[in-house]
Write a structure and sequence with these properties.
single chain, alpha+beta, four-stranded antiparallel β-sheet, binds alpha-D-galactopyranose
């Protein structure tokens, strides 16, 4: 069965909704380490204090009945007949149900109400928040005994298989596993997290949303992934132990320079350099050297702009505009690219005036009003049995 028309009437029973499980599922930021996760490298994300909230209860109909307050959209589907929908938001949920059932976990009918604080297409992973919060809620409602790592991985598979985005593991890992007031330095090869205190002193993390989301994002994402994988396959012929760019040193990459096309070469060079920058950022945070963290963020952006080529004029404009402001230590595009937010490390008392200024110049240039929000590194998924 196809999911029913989202405009279908919400069942009367939803009016008096007594939740059995409540979930708060956060979006994420990424301080540094972009497009490195699917190359088995390092990333440094954190969940944030902006979330999707879910309420769950069982029903006796063998149906998943879901209402999004945010979009005023309702859908329902039979648990035995899970197929892809033409409504993209439903595929995140259908994908999660499908992946849970593939693990031979028994779901029964349930009702769910969702409310989101996360803008879509902003690069703060509303998708991972949706998948992981939904999976976590069902896990609790039906005592499925899935571990947090199971939830992370099945949510990533849901996105790969049902939504069709070949994403890495960073977003789901951050949304589920984060600790309040910490960044996670995640080794995407071993999936070992290292929690780094987010000691940013007089600064705050400010996201400036370009409010554009160029539709290149998905296809270019998958192309970048393939460019890196093709280079790995070539290097593997000589160095058989190499499984990903993670095992490729600058020296090995250089050795293959003549055999790799110039574009793929700079993509890989970027990935190796970005991994280095994550390591250096960890050190700089430990030394409370925020100027150095900021310089690494700028260098990351320039790599994404010129070597990895996943930025866009709107993001570059925001980063360029911040660069001569000495109260902004660092600024870079965040997430997959081609739109979404910049993340800025900025002195707290300058934020208000800066937002006014950046709104004016950005609007004058692109005729779009950007949206600015400050965020705080927060805990991963919170689940409460009522
Ligand atoms: C998206 C993906 C992540 C990661 C980033 C780029 O957010 O979902 O897995 O690859 O892009 O760093």
């Amino acid at each position: 069965m196809k999911p029913t028309d989202p405009n279908k009437n919400i069942p009367e029973e939803f009016k008096a909704f007594k939740a059995e499980v409540k979930v708060a599922s956060p979006g994420r930021i990424n301080l540094i380490g972009e497009h490195t996760d699917y190359n088995q490298g390092f990333v440094m994300p954190a969940a944030i204090d902006k979330k999707i909230y879910f309420q769950f209860r069982k029903n006796n109909y063998n149906l998943a009945r879901i209402y999004s307050e945010t979009f005023d959209a309702y859908t329902e589907f039979k648990l035995q007949e899970i197929t892809k929908s033409s409504n993209s938001w439903e595929n995140y949920l259908l994908g999660v149900i499908d992946e849970i059932q593939k693990l031979n976990k028994q779901l029964e009918g349930f009702d769910c109400i969702m409310r989101s604080e996360l803008p879509i297409g902003a690069g703060i992973s509303s998708s991972a928040a949706l998948e992981c919060g939904f999976a976590g809620g069902l896990n609790s409602l039906f005592n499925l005994e899935l571990t947090p790592m199971d939830i992370v991985k099945l949510s990533q598979r849901a996105e790969n298989n049902f939504v069709g985005s070949n994403c890495g593991i960073m977003d789901q890992f951050a949304s589920v596993m984060s600790k309040k007031d910490h960044f996670i330095k995640l080794d995407c090869e071993t999936l070992e997290p290292k929690f780094i205190p987010a000691k940013i002193e007089n600064c705050k993390l400010l996201l400036v949303n370009t409010n554009v989301s160029h539709n290149l994002a998905d296809s270019e994402y998958n192309t970048r992934r393939k460019e890196c994988e093709d280079v790995v396959a070539m290097i593997q012929q000589k160095y058989t132990e190499v499984q990903s760019l993670r095992q490729v040193s600058f020296e090995i990459l250089e050795e293959f320079r003549d055999q790799i096309d110039a574009t793929s070469f700079k993509r890989c060079q970027y990935v190796l350099e970005e991994n280095e920058r994550v390591r250096q950022t960890e050190k700089a945070l430990q030394d409370a050297n925020l100027k150095s963290v900021g310089q690494l963020m700028y260098a990351s952006h320039r790599g994404l702009q010129h070597q990895y080529e996943v930025s866009c004029p709107e993001l570059d404009f925001l980063v360029d505009f911040s660069e001569d402001k000495d109260f902004i230590y660092g600024s870079r595009m965040m997430g997959g690219g081609f739109g979404g937010c910049t993340i800025n490390l900025i002195e707290a008392d300058k934020i208000k005036a800066y937002i006014e200024e950046v709104e004016k110049v950005y609007k004058a240039k692109f005729n779009i009003t950007p949206t600015a929000i400050t965020v705080v590194p927060d805990a991963g998924t919170q689940i409460t049995k009522v």
